Amino acid sequence: MLDFSALPRFDLIQPEHVAPAVTDLLTRYQALIDELIARPEAPTWDGFAAPITDMGEQVSRAWGVVGHLHGVNDVPAWREAYNASLPDITRFYSSLGQNLALFAKYRALHDSPEYATLSPARRRILDNEVRDFRLSGAELPEELKPRFKEIQEELASLSAKFSENLLDATNAFAEYVTDEALLAGLPDDSIEAAREAAQRDERDGWKFTLHMPSYLPVMQYADNR
Question: Is residue 92 located within the same domain as residue 31?
Answer without folding.
Answer: yes
